[in-house]
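User: Could you go from structure to sequence for me? I need the amino acid at each position, not a summary. Structure tokens:
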């Protein structure tokens, strides 16, 4: 589902505000680190009993989050061998939390997907860190899955082609957090 341009801008600002609030300033960006700093409980599927694990896998083969007794819990499938995919799942669920989602509808899923994509490999960081910008370089630099790196590469190319020639305020703030001079 395509979100409005205003919603994308709002989510990007939220990502950077989250980075600033939780002192995120190193690459690769870890959903685990952010979730832990937020006080969210992270639970691997392997810690669940067999029935709970089966129910969790039926609900999502990657992961999900719920609020119970005033505690936000992120459940994730730790049998996945790709750290990048697990980290993407955790960041997606962090996105649900940060964006105040409660319904889990199509729009909220799109917002959380974009939150995770932008948070894990933002175009301004790709632009300032990677020398040879291609999916494989993005994958290695940001420790994300190849699929996520390919999507980040496509998004980066669109950012170059259609974005503002000057950094936005939130992009400058992000570059400053990661110790890059935006000038």
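Assistant: Here is the amino acid at each position, in order:
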């Amino acid at each position: 589902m395509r979100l409005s341009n205003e919603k994308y801008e709002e989510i990007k600002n939220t990502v950077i505000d989250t980075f600033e609030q939780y002192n995120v300033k190193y690459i690769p960006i870890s959903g685990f680190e952010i979730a832990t700093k937020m006080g969210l409980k992270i639970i691997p599927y392997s810690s669940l009993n067999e029935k709970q694990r089966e129910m969790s896998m039926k609900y999502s083969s990657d992961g999900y989050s719920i609020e119970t007794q005033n505690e936000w819990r992120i459940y994730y499938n730790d049998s996945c061998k790709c750290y990048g995919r697990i980290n993407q799942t955790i960041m997606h669920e962090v996105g649900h939390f940060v964006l105040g989602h409660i319904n889990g509808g199509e729009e909220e899923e799109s917002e959380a997907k974009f939150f995770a994509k932008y948070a894990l490999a933002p175009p301004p960081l790709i632009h300032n860190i990677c020398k040879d910008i291609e999916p494989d370089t993005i994958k290695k630099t940001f420790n994300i899955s190849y699929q996520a790196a390919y999507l980040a590469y496509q998004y980066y190319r669109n950012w170059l082609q259609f974005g503002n020639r000057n950094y936005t305020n939130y992009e400058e703030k992000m570059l400053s957090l990661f110790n890059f001079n935006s000038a």
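One structural detail worth keeping in mind: DSSP finds nine helices and three strands in the chain.
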